[in-house]
Design goal:
The complex is a heterodimer of chains A (about 120) and B (about 120).
Chain A: E1 4-6, E2 10-13, E3 19-25, E4 31-38, E5 42-51, E6 54-57, E7 64-70, E8 73-78, E9 87-94, E10 106-107, E11 111-115
Parallel strand pairs in A: 2-11
Antiparallel strand pairs in A: 1-3, 3-8, 4-5, 4-9, 5-6, 7-8, 9-10, 9-11
Chain B: E1 4-5, E2 10-14, E3 19-21, E4 24-25, E5 32-39, E6 46-52, E7 59-61, E8 64-69, E9 74-79, E10 88-97, E11 104-108, E12 112-117
Parallel strand pairs in B: 2-12
Antiparallel strand pairs in B: 1-4, 3-9, 5-6, 5-10, 7-8, 8-9, 10-11, 10-12
The chains are: A mainly beta (about 120), B mainly beta (about 120).
């Protein structure tokens, strides 16, 4: 059974703390993604990675950084957490889209982060 | 402007009714990919269907069907004889080429919440 796992389902942190969210996939996918999901705003892409050590900014990268040292693991880092980063964070992975194959994303269960 | 518009924020139906979820997209690319995902109350998004821009064939899978029309830039999703288990948030997504190395970057609509009453 293919899987994307995230390190925590729920996390509570204080303003100014450094926060690490971990994501691991076992499908040998090249692409990995971090989204945040907020009511009424859908899923917004924070960062994605198409290969080890490669990363690209999504639509809302401010206040976040990422790390991909191994193919199966993609970490999201909040350097100094703020209350407006309280949200649901979703990790996803996929093979690259090409012709009739690839592109569909597999999602983790999400981490609900609260910053106090 | 949104690249993927799901104008219906919430739809409420009674079981066994048919329901159509609309998705309109915007792109200048000739090669792109469209997707639908389901997010049940448990929270985990599940992939439903993928279409590439060169394949306008409609698809049917059980009670689910999808209508892809490039002329109107729409990729609508119909559930026939809805059931309570269909209650979820449904997301439409578009992947266009735009990243380094020719990677395709996904953009999601804001989702449509479907509530099916018994």
């Amino acid at each position: 059974d293919v899987k994307v796992t995230q390190s925590s389902r729920y996390l509570v942190k204080r303003t100014g703390e450094k926060v690490f969210l971990e994501c691991v996939q076992d499908m040998d996918h090249e692409n990995m993604f971090w989204y945040r999901q907020d009511p009424g705003l859908g899923l917004r892409l924070i960062y994605f990675s198409y290969d080890v050590k490669m990363k690209e900014k999504g639509d809302i990268p401010e206040g976040y950084s990422v790390s991909r040292e191994k193919k199966e693991r993609f970490s999201l880092i909040l350097e100094s957490a703020s209350t407006n980063q309280t949200s649901m964070y979703l990790c996803a992975s996929s093979h690259p889209a090409w012709g009739d194959l690839g592109g569909e994303q597999f999602f983790g269960p999400g981490t609900r982060l609260t910053v106090l | 402007a949104q690249k993927v518009t799901q104008a219906q924020t919430e739809i409420s139906v009674v079981e066994k009714e048919d329901v159509t979820l609309d998705c309109v997209y915007e792109t200048r690319d000739t090669t792109y990919y469209l997707f639908w995902y389901k997010q049940p109350p448990s929270g985990e998004l599940v992939f439903l269907i993928r279409r590439n821009s060169f394949d306008e064939q409609n698809e049917i899978s059980g009670r689910y069907s999808w209508n892809f029309q490039k002329s109107t830039s729409s990729f609508n999703f119909t559930i026939t004889a809805s059931q309570v288990v269909d209650s979820a948030v449904y997301f439409c997504a578009l992947s266009e080429e735009g990243g380094a190395g020719g990677s395709y970057i996904p953009t999601f609509g804001r989702g449509t919440s479907l509530i099916v009453h018994p």
